[in-house]
């Protein structure tokens, strides 16, 4: 896992030495950071929020989202991930299914389709539908004032078909035998053009584009789309170059092990997410999850971080809402993602109990009524932020599997700095009884505040998908 120790002096020195001579005023303008740079300590109790700006409000703008940043602080959010904010290509823009916008004859119907965020037309510009540079800066400054960090969603694997590189630098792209630029092989991403990292000039241009956002807009890192489709040696060099400016938080949309070795702080817990879905649907059981935890313990380094989620933009739009996929298990699974090792994700609308699939290529909006899910997240956020037993960063709390003599009951203890949190859940659709081996005494349920007495010799009844989040009272 990458490590860093920085000061403003070192950053200024490196930038001054690396580039052509500049005036002192210019160097300072490029390197001064307006907030504290993110640290390993920040990651221990961090919650990350995926902001779908287009769908977050009726207006779909930075400014409307910025208004709610103080509310996100109530949920314990520390990192805000902005889905791609760049202009979206119009050429080969997708409408729905295999239909392209250009195939639609009705002009008004064509206007409905706004394209994929991941078909980037310009890496150093802002989609005017979202706002302007001043609006983005205000969002970032507001986040910083609230003790949060902002990362941009970065699409390094491909561009849209009217990106200026298509005409100015066709050599940056992958081509077929006929010399034609192609979309990424093995995908249906026909609205994008595949980039060729065998070209060193492309690598330089991509790094320069990413540096622009750190230097000019003081962003705190990047979520890198399909990071495993881009060569790891590019990420190693690129991310090291970016951190000559300031320490950054780097999230890979990938589980590929070598990405963690020096380039990225965190990756997606995709496999764990799919098992969570299967647990909720009765297609897998607790033994499958235990096997997975043993597997990742041997695959990853101790300081690697996985992002835990029960929904995100892909899952919601293409595979279904939390209710569709997890049904009656959704509350237990939401708490599950906070208590297992790693960093929990909140996706726009999830905090409001959103029970619809957001349109991907069209304008849509999320609900804004606080209810049961908001209250659950608020409690979980408070525990995550304040209790070291749920630390999930590079110095994560210990994870101990507890024995329950019941194949449907999952029980774990997380502990650090003398603090303990115990999670016990019936991960089945049937009522059951359980007792935890070696656990006797009085506990406080952190979610309800109730006192719970557990005695090894006495079975405790648990309804389907019931759970307890406990701390010892003695």
UniProtKB/TrEMBL annotation:
<dbReference type="InterPro" id="IPR013780">
    <property type="entry name" value="Glyco_hydro_b"/>
</dbReference>
<feature type="domain" description="Glycosyl hydrolase family 13 catalytic">
    <location>
        <begin position="50"/>
        <end position="384"/>
    </location>
</feature>
<keyword id="KW-0456">Lyase</keyword>
<protein>
    <submittedName>
        <fullName>Alpha-amlyase</fullName>
    </submittedName>
</protein>
<dbReference type="GO" id="GO:0005975">
    <property type="term" value="P:carbohydrate metabolic process"/>
</dbReference>
<dbReference type="GO" id="GO:0016829">
    <property type="term" value="F:lyase activity"/>
</dbReference>
<dbReference type="InterPro" id="IPR006047">
    <property type="entry name" value="GH13_cat_dom"/>
</dbReference>
<dbReference type="InterPro" id="IPR017853">
    <property type="entry name" value="GH"/>
</dbReference>
<dbReference type="Pfam" id="PF00128">
    <property type="entry name" value="Alpha-amylase"/>
</dbReference>
